[in-house]
Design goal:
65% of the residues lie in helices and 18% in strands. The chain has three domains: 30 residues; 67 residues, SH3 type barrels (Roll), CATH 2.30.30.40; 77 residues. It has 204 residues and is α+β, with helices and mostly antiparallel strands. The longest helix has 104 residues. It contains two helices and seven strands. Strands 6-5-4-1-7 form a five-stranded antiparallel sheet, with no helix packed on it. Strands 2-3 form a two-stranded antiparallel ribbon.
């Protein structure tokens, strides 16, 4: 009587365990790939499965960049190498920190970028210096032209002063001549009129 019930319990337990295993397997399969690196000073074989009994698919060098899928078994981890190959390697050889070769390559790249930026800044500084030199040359040219304009203005002002003095002298001389003629006429004409009257009186 208890046999069917016991069989049912075993079936439910078995199905539950199967469901849990399937759930974790599906979760592991869909786990996000994580960044990883092979530790330095090492070159290891990659296998088709989690163990040395699986076929060797190749080797991976120290410091190589990879991605871990999250699947692990028998102290092995499933990875995706830099050639997009899905293989297995021993977990102890995987680290989350980039290796020395990777760090050196990154530093070299940053230095190269820094040198490029420095060269760009040097080019901009040289261009600014060139522009400043052109501005200084234009400034000198403008100062020279301004000096020439001032000299021409001074010469013109001197000419105007000379012409004004000449005009004043001419007016003075003309006035003196007119005054002299007036005095002469003022002295001579009365005498002429007086003599003429005296002559007319003598004739009468």
């Amino acid at each position: 009587m208890n046999s069917p019930i016991l069989h049912l319990k075993k079936l439910i337990k078995h199905n539950t365990l199967g469901f849990i295993v399937l759930f974790f397997a599906a979760f592991s399969a869909h786990a996000e790939n994580q960044q990883g690196y092979i530790i330095d000073d090492l070159s290891i074989f990659m296998h088709a499965g989690p163990g040395t009994n699986y076929r060797i698919l190749g080797s991976i060098n120290a410091g190589a960049e990879l991605k871990t899928t999250g699947n692990t078994s028998n102290d092995y981890s499933e990875i995706i190498d830099n050639k997009d190959r899905v293989t297995w390697v021993e977990t102890k050889y995987i680290t989350r920190q980039p290796g020395l070769s990777f760090v050196v390559a990154d530093i070299k790249e940053k230095l190269a970028n820094g040198n490029d930026y420095t060269a760009q800044l040097d080019g901009e500084v040289n261009e600014l210096k060139s522009n400043i030199n052109l501005i200084n040359e234009e400034k000198k040219q403008l100062q020279t032209e301004l000096k020439q304009v001032k000299q021409a203005l001074e010469q013109t002002q001197n000419k105007l002063k000379g012409q004004d003095t000449a005009i004043k002298k001419e007016w003075f001389f003309n006035g003196a001549i007119v005054l002299g003629l007036g005095l002469i006429l003022g002295l001579i004409l009365p005498k002429l009129f007086t003599r003429r009257r005296a002559s007319m009186d003598n004739w009468g």
